[in-house]
Amino acid sequence: MIMEEIVKDVCYCFDLTPTQLHFKVRGYAISHPRQLAMYIMRKKARKPFTEIATYFGVDHTSVIHAKKAVEKRLLNKEYREKTNDLLKLYDMKCLEPKITITFFPFSMKVRQNVSRL
Predict the structure, then answer these.
(1) Residue 24 falls within a domain, yes or no?
(2) 94 lies in a domain?
(3) What letter would DSSP give residue 105?
(4) What would you measure as the largest C-alpha separation in the chain, in angstroms?
(5) What is the C-alpha separation between 31 and 86, in angstroms, rounded?
(6) What are 77-86's contacts with CB under 8 Å, separation 24+?
(7) Cα separations (Å) of 59 from 20, 30, 63, 66?
(8) Tell me: the pLDDT tens digits for 81-94?
(9) What's the number of domains the chain is made of?
(10) List of residues 6+ apart from 23 with CB closer than 8 A
(11) How does pLDDT run across 24-81, given as a tens digit for each residue?
């Protein structure tokens, strides 16, 4: 099953065992890899929130929170670099922050004249 493969790969990257990932521990060393595994299961395996929640023994809202938390962390360049190898394993592209650059081809004087028309 793909869920077990994802858990094994995440555990390998973070030097954990699959049983540790299922612990009800809230520390970052365990919860972060667990959230990342939930995120990959949701995005790549396209598993529903309830199925992922049942697999980890949590409520489906925990899976929703995990998805949002990982997406927010992926906006950080350092975090993307750390998890890039794991995400490449599942052919997932890291989220790049959306930067909008606006160029004004006219000077402000011209823009003021145009706005008066």
Answers:
(1) yes
(2) no
(3) -
(4) 70
(5) 17
(6) 83/36, 85/13, 86/9, 86/10, 86/13, 86/36, 86/40
(7) 18, 17, 7, 11
(8) 888 878 888 776 65
(9) 1
(10) 30
(11) 888 888 999 999 999 999 988 888 999 999 999 999 999 999 999 999 998 888 888 8
